[in-house]
Design brief:
This protein is an alpha+beta fold. The protein is built from eight helices and 16 strands.
């Protein structure tokens, strides 16, 4: 993530490593945040998907059960090039589903378990995610001290490259000033607003990382679990004051049009922690150029951000998702045809 600084050092100071060389190198298990009701008109499904986005999986489930895609619920977005297990809900009063939904040489989708439930699964109804990851082609060994630092200090809680995709930020910046005249789907509208708020949050967090105070409380901070927080921008007054507010104002000074656009769009200001600590972190180094990692993160935190504090990541045959991030000097209203 070249735009936003790491706490662990510059990219050129870190070993290089490849990740997601194979889907099995990136395994994610979603931890559901609600208990299945055991009855109701919905099926709550634990689904394993390979090389499919969450939206792809929702489309397949909608087709399989004969429902509208908008009626398929899920708690969070998951990586495509990975083996992920996540929960979906489908309105379906009939019998339980067949286990295999979709399979070809490149991707597959299958149901692991199903339960009756009383309502549609909503975004954010998850307790967290557990990751089992493999880094390969390491250009240098990773010291145990660097891994132990993640446990003791945590990492900056940036929104990761998955949030921004290849051009989501650029598209969102072009849409916001003309949102009243350009009709888009509710899904895309929610995505664009989230992307813009995530960008601004990362800008503030980057300022705190540069100042060396991202994981400690300073004058005027609004804390959460004894950690400083930053705003997910929207209507409402920022909860910070003092020095924390000064840093926030300076970090956002060149994005005034974007701030006003989000406020007029009607989203309410929220808070997000500047710090996240991987829970249950363990690691193995089977060889000098390979590292295996296992850890859990709370909802909304990114494993790629954790990895980025250890290595300069290289995804297999993929363009860097952050390569399309525009410079702040580009006008908010610019669009691309």
């Amino acid at each position: 993530m070249n735009r936003w600084p790491r706490a662990g050092g510059r990219a050129d100071e870190l070993p290089g490593a490849r990740y997601k060389s194979r889907p099995e190198d990136f395994r994610v298990t979603e931890q559901l945040g609600v208990e299945p009701a055991g009855e109701g008109e919905h099926l709550l499904l634990s689904v394993e998907k390979i090389n499919l986005t969450s939206q792809d999986a929702a489309q397949h489930l909608a087709s399989r059960f004969g429902v509208f895609e908008r009626d398929v619920g899920f708690a969070g977005m998951k990586d495509k090039r990975a083996i992920t297990r996540q929960w979906f809900s489908v309105p379906y009063p009939g019998a339980a589903a067949a286990q295999l939904i979709h399979e070809n040489e490149q991707c597959s989708l299958r149901i692991i378990e199903s339960h009756r439930h009383s309502h549609k699964l909503r975004r954010g109804q998850l307790a967290g995610n557990h990751f089992e990851l493999r880094l390969c082609e390491l250009t240098d060994a990773i010291e145990d001290a660097a891994l132990e630092r993640l446990q003791t200090q945590g990492v900056p809680n940036y929104f990761g490259p998955q949030r921004f995709g290849s051009d989501n930020l650029e598209m969102a910046l072009g849409w916001l000033p003309v949102r009243r005249s350009r009709r888009i789907s509710d899904f895309k509208k929610g995505l664009y607003l989230s992307v813009l708020r995530s960008f601004l949050f990362n800008e503030i967090l980057a300022a705190r990382v540069r100042g060396g105070n991202w994981n400690e409380l300073i004058d005027g901070d609004f804390e959460q679990d004894q950690a400083p927080t930053g705003p997910l921008w929207g209507r409402g007054r920022s909860a910070t004051g003092g020095l924390a507010a000064q840093i926030e104002v300076q970090a956002l000074a060149e994005h005034q049009q974007l701030l006003e656009g989000l406020e007029f769009a009607g989203v309410k200001q929220q808070r997000r922690s500047f710090k996240v600590t991987p829970a249950g972190l363990s690691w193995q180094q089977p060889s000098k150029d390979e590292l295996l990692l296992s850890f859990s993160l709370p909802p909304g935190a990114y494993a790629t951000v954790v990895l980025g504090e250890l290595v300069e990541l290289r995804a297999a045959a993929q363009r860097s998702p952050l390569a399309a991030l525009i410079e702040p000097s580009r006008a908010v209203g610019e669009t691309r045809q």
